Every structure is written in C-alpha cells, then in structure tokens.
Amino acid sequence: MAQAERKTMDAQFSTTPARARTDVDAWPPVPGRPPIAARTVRRLGLALTAGTLAWAASIFMYGTVNTGFEQRVGDLTGLAFQLGVFALLTVQIRTRATGTSRVARVMLKVELALLGLASLWSLLHGVLPESAQDGVALAVLDVFWPLSMLGMMVIGVKLALAGQWRGPLRWWPLVAETWGVVTVPLFIAVGEEGARWVGGGHLVIGYAALGALLALRPELVLPAERG
C-alpha cells in the first residue's frame, strides 16, 4: 500500500510541469529572442514618419491658427501625427527604452494616457460642428495636447540617460521631443508666420527623421548585449 502511494507521488512529481511565476516580469519574454521584431520596428517607424509629414505639410500650408476647413485639416493631420507617436511609444514600451525600473515603465504608460486624451481632442475638434468645438469638455481635453508633448520630452531625456537605445537613436528622440519647447516660445515671440516654418521644419528634422532611423536601423533599439 505504501509502495503504491509512493509510486503515485513520484509519477505526479515527474509529469506535472512547473508553473510559470506570475509575480516576475520576465525580460525578454522568450530567452534569446528580441522583445520586438525588426520588421515591426520598421513598420512603426514608417508610421511615425508618415503621420509627422502629414502634419508638417498642413503646418507649412495653413499654419497652426486657423478656422473652418484649414483648421479641420490641421486637427486631423495632427491626429495622424499623434497616431505616429503611438507607434513610437509602442517601440519604446516593448524595448523598455526608458530603463527597466518600475518608474521607467510607468512613465511610458502615463504618456499613453496623456496622448490618448490629446488624440481624442484632435478627433473631436476635427469632426464636430463649430458650435460644439468651444465646449467645456473639449477645452479640458485641449490641455492634454501640451501635456502629452511635455511628457514626450521627459521621455526623451530619460531615454538618453538610460542608454537602452544605441547610436543616433539614443539621442534623436530628445531632438524630436523638443518640438514644443522650441516652437511655442517662438510663436509667442515672432508670431504665426515665423513659427509656421520653424514648427514644420522641426517636425521633419525631429520626428520624421526619427521614424526613418527606426525604419533603417531597427537593431539600435536593443541594448548592445542583445544587438
């Protein structure tokens, strides 16, 4: 009887697979495999470039302060840019671009929320009737546009310090994410006409070029030991 019980217990121990721990955040998800495929990085980089160029073209053509049709074009191309930034955040989250600490990961998720609310403003402001564009709800959502850009600048600084990305991709996000810091003071100082060309040009040099770098050098989003 005891011998039979011992055989049963041995069989259970030898055939029951070990359960994966849910309290450990494994990195990378599969040992020896990068956390994101190079082709995925390329596609997301091209999405960032495409969305950025759409918004930059709108700024070159119509500026940033408009009404009517031109305003709606600016809102919706701004939304295209924001969708491109979502693509950038996807790469940053998958590669832990800001570092491996909990704070470093949380800051990217906070930015997702800020950018989501800012994108909702762009969509609603671009499609709703003019009578609804000045409502309180949209005024509150509008605040998240500059907040989301400020968040991206903070991420650019943290990414450069963390050193998870390599080569030009370590520093180019910081260049791209100074857009608000450069353009808004210039708009206040010289007005719409000067800010139009600097703002559109900064987008091309910053975010559009960043997307192109992701598409051309996707291996640089991994630390050297994984590259």
Q: What is the overall silhouette?
A: globular
Number of helices: 10
Q: What are the low-pLDDT stretches, counting only 5+ consecutive residues below 50?
A: 11-18, 20-27
Mean pLDDT across all amino acids: 85
Structural class by SSE content: mainly alpha
Beta-strand segment tally: 0
Largest sheet: none
Order of helices and strands: HHHHHHHHHH
Radius of gyration: 23 Å
Task: Report how far apart the termini are.
Answer: 58 Å
Oligomer state equals: single chain
Share of helical residues: over 70%
What percent of residues are in strands?
Answer: under 5%
Describe it.
With 227 residues, this protein is mainly alpha-helical. Helix content is 74%, strand content 0%. The protein has ten helices and no strands. Helix 4 runs antiparallel to helix 7 (144-162), helix 8 (168-176) packs antiparallel against helix 10 (192-216) and helix 9 (179-190) packs antiparallel against helix 10. The protein is globular, with a radius of gyration of 23 Å.
